[in-house]
Amino acid sequence: MLGASIAVAAPTTAAPAGPDALRVDLDKILADPRLDGSHAGVVVRDPETDEVLYSSQADARATPASNAKLLTAAAALEALGPDYRFRTDVLTDGQQRGPVLQGDLFLRGTGDPTMLAADYDRLAAQVAESGVREVKGKLRTDAGAFDDVPLGSGWAWDDEPYYYAAPISALTVAPNTDFDAGTALVRATPGAEGEPAEVALEPATAVLEIDNRTTTSAPGSAPALSVEREHGGNRVVVSGSVPAGGPVVEDFSTVPDPAAYAGDVFARALAAHGVQVGGVAPGRTPEGARSLAGRDSMPLRDLLVPFMKLSNNGHAEVLVKAMGRQATGTGTWGGGIEVLNEKLNGLGVDSKVMRMVDGSGLSTMDAVTPRQLALLLDNARQRPWFQVWYDSLPVAGNADRMVGGTLRSRMVGTPGQDNVHAKTGSLTGVTSLSGYVTAANGRPLVFSVVFNDFVSSSPKDLEDAIAVRLAEYDGAADAPSTPRVRRAPLPADDPATGVDESALECSWVKAC
Fold it and tell me: Which residues form the domain of 218?
């Protein structure tokens, strides 16, 4: 018809789908204002196709915190093997005449972080079974398998009293089955109201001097115990209060000389078994000394569980030094890091674009990239030890402490629960989460999230939101959604504790 107008349909824009939809949602998560001015590195890979589904600041180096343990664990499995064990021996070069040993007794360690007081007691029983009742010489502590540098480069001086920064030694004691080696438990038992609490060490040792400034508060009041070892010394100030009629309250103190600690605990065990020694002092085991007793630790495949699930810093560092010792004969951080870099290169990780100075990530000098972490996660799937490594990672939302580990209170009630297997990391202004997740379409994905330099509240919930969104990902059929994360309250988020759990590794707050 002449003069009639023709309607033209407006162009339509198709909604993003597949990886494009995923990118839209992850961009929204990273637009959170808490990340303004901060570093937010994220990489997501499909390991079966090597496709990078998402990348943001992938090659920008950042402090990894405990995500560094992924690098250390993988390198240790490569260098030492899943069946590696630490050895502790009791030896002598003296002559035994009846019940008398003419000479010294040597306690020699190789870094075993799982040695409990009960293990030293069993060693003492073996010595007693050999017929020795008196050692004319001394008990010599031999920690020469490692160097004498107890703390890592870049560790904060004010972390020194706290169990997560315990000194590293080839000879040490753990007070618990989390194997927090180089620490002692400080136990405060309430007395009568208004009176001091009774303070004791577990295991009993004279290498720490307790300055008891505690009081017993009213029944039903909240405990408020403070335990702090003075910088550079062995004096431990215990202050605060514990409620009358309440349970024993425990905290940790690091021990400045772990080898002396081991010697003291072993000497007490020997005495309990009727073996007297003429004092404890350091010393090196002479060539040709014969063994009177010995113990092998659990294999590395088993040690990985408390190491990775609970993010145990000390375990990482003894593994670094053990790698150095295997390569050079002496356990040093420098030698161990050289081996670590070599093994990572063999796993497809470019060590030249990273810097590692310790094994735990406690040092702020460590610098890695999300791309390299994701490559490690991807390439590790081809290694014969992969299942051991994978099983050692914390599992989101699993309440079992030795399964869920530092993720046990996160992503509860979401598609990430019992799905996300990942390593956490936390320092002041740093949080990281890297691991594995199975997407809704059944595809395995690897991811790395490293946030640095935030100054407001911790963005751990954004890590969770990313991991949950990956669990919801449906491949080519995927469509944008409203990412959500439901985070169960963490047990240490309790005003009575005075602890901000969001700022710490969960394992660093033993109440959790």
Answer: 183-254
